[in-house]
Design goal:
98 residues; alpha+beta; 4-stranded antiparallel sheet; 3 helices; 4 strands; globular; Antibiotic biosynthesis monooxygenase
Amino acid sequence: MTFLQLIEYETTQKARVDDLMDEWLKATEGKRTATHEMLGQDRDKPSHFVNIVEFPSYERAMANSALPETQHIAEEMRGLCDGEPRFVNLDIVRDEKW
């Protein structure tokens, strides 16, 4: 079953957050369990972002979170955010494609 993790955060340092994501992608090559990632930016509030990350399962998402590289990048990212990021863990119960 597909699992999604939403990471919602505020930052005025988008370029640095993008750099961190690139660092994470390089550092976790061959060991990350995420299969797809999308980043949305709020049109009405440009400092508000939602990162949508897809995993094959909740267990694989937690394994990804436990990677030392993920922990390091997450800590760096917290320092770039205005407030704490919000995490939402979603089991996909319906998936329609049109």
